[in-house]
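Suppose you are handed only these lines of text.
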Amino acid sequence: MGRNVTFPCGHLVGRELQLAHSAQVAGLAPDPIEIYASAIDASDYTERLSALVKRVVPTIGDLLDIGAGGGQLGCALRVVGRRWTAIEPNPNMTVRLSRLAGAPHVIRCGWEAAQIPRKSHDTVLAASIAAPFQTPAAFLSRCLAWTRRTVVWIVPAHRGPRGLVFAGCLPPKWHCEDETPGVEIVLGKLPANHQPRVVATAEWTFAGVFADLERLADYLADRLGWAALDSRRHEMSAHLLSRAKPHPAGHRLEIPRQSAVLAWGEL
Ligand SMILES: C[S@@+](CC[C@H](N)C(=O)[O-])C[C@H]1O[C@@H](n2cnc3c(N)ncnc32)[C@H](O)[C@@H]1O
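From them, the structure of the protein bound to S-adenosylmethionine can be written out as follows.
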């Protein structure tokens, strides 16, 4: 694996702490998870994946949303009048979640420490979080303990980087990440008797709108650990510009993605 092996869920490092941009248009807040959530706002992820999850799991019931992020997907899946519980450790995301109409009950910690009664939710969802890669068997066993009916994981299925946000715009020689489709890694780590009953995939586009592409170029170069005078910084700006489409608010970057919906239990 390369140097950026996690989902954009990591802690802040180096100059990221000094970056303080508006997340509204550029999505360049210093928190990588806020950048990811802003990109999800500009993407068709919620629409595409919620439609697929509803086909696989027609009855969602009480929903436990592990690593809910900005709550976009949970909001599209939750059933009005039924419980929506979010496990979410990131403070920016808990603020986002609290502002949603019909906000979920938020448990402000990681899944490892969450105290959730057994069989308390019909559907347990873990969408685009790192746990299925890190400790899949232990995580699945916890999800199965919490559900009355179905466990759903959403994991990347495309070939490409899964760590640094917007790394999918960059050539592999820059991002240096493993590009194995995430679903292959997750299924390969699960024992035969814990394989999902369903594996279904959906195409979608990860997108971001940037008022100032230079800021994104700087951000990515910083995250890649390039020195301030690294000559590739100019190439980064030119590369992003060549990938971007004009947008009324600046530039729009798009990265084709595929995600797999894995499901266990009653379907
Ligand atoms: C890439 S975001 C995905 C958000 C959302 N589920 C979605 O599909 O858009 C990953 C989320 O997992 C959260 N997370 C990180 N570590 C976690 C942990 N140990 N337990 C639960 N959530 C975690 C992050 O804070 C972040 O909000």
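What can we learn from it? Confidence is low (pLDDT under 50) at residues 1-29. Residues 137 and 212 are 42 Å apart (CA to CA).
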